[in-house]
Amino acid sequence: MEVIVARTAEEMSKVAAQEVVDVLNAKPNAVLGMATGSTPLGVYQELVKLHRRGELDFSHVTTFNLDEYVGLPITHPQSYHQFMHENFFRQVNIPAQNIHIPSGTTTNYPAFCAWYEQRIRECGGIDLQILGIGSDGHIAFNEPGSSLSSRTRLKTLARQTIDDNARFFEHRDDVPIYAITMGVGTILEARKIVLVASGKGKAKAIAQTVEG
Ligand code: F6R
Q: Do 91 and 48 form a contact (C-beta atoms < 8 A)?
């Protein structure tokens, strides 16, 4: 594990974006794992900037998002589908059929989760996973106590996560209490992981992640 301390969130985003650039330069058809949340936004902005300058091509890239809220239609402004399309996919050239985001509205979650895992394997596994971290230390929506070998599944969100995410919804009660999420085991199979975190609220989670 390499820990890179950046002076600003902007610098952090540039360092993380450079990791994506390096992977795509070495493998233009790489499989990228995508995260939502406020922290990776700057990374996506950097990548969009490079794409607009003609320095980064996503036309052979495949993506898999980490998670989605259960019960939110894809058109809901707080769904992770909307987030990704608004903040990234709409602004780069990844073929629509190469984009995978867990469904928060499937009628059969176990079957969907098994299919998602299978799609990741069929695409050759994730080359680079972008990750954020929750203030309670969750990665994707794997709340504390999640098994290290867990796979894509339904999870109940921790109270702290619901409180943290309430800022995006009109009322706290509007925050979904379930999510579909890649497991810790799924994430750890990525060939490379770039976890981004910034701000005081993440200091404890990062100290425990790095120092144990
Ligand atoms: C989102 C995700 C979450 C976030 C985490 C931090 O896809 O997987 O684990 O990374 O909740 O969110 P922000 O960056 O908004 O603090």
A: yes
Q: By C-alpha distance, which of 71, 73, 67, 81 is closest to 151?
A: 67
- The overall pTM is greater than 0.90: yes
- Identify the residues whose C-beta falls under 6 Å from ligand 1: 35-39, 66-67, 132-134, 138-140
Q: Please give the C-alpha separations between residue 27 and each of 14, 62, 63, 99, 197, in angstroms, as whole numbers.
A: 20, 12, 14, 17, 26
Give the position of tokens 């320095």.
55
Per-residue confidence (pLDDT) for residue 68, from 0 to 100: 98
Can you give the length of the chain in residues? 212
Q: How far apart are CA 61 and CA 45, in angstroms?
A: 17
Distance CA 105, CA 110 (A): 12
- What residue ranges of the chain have pLDDT lower than 50? none
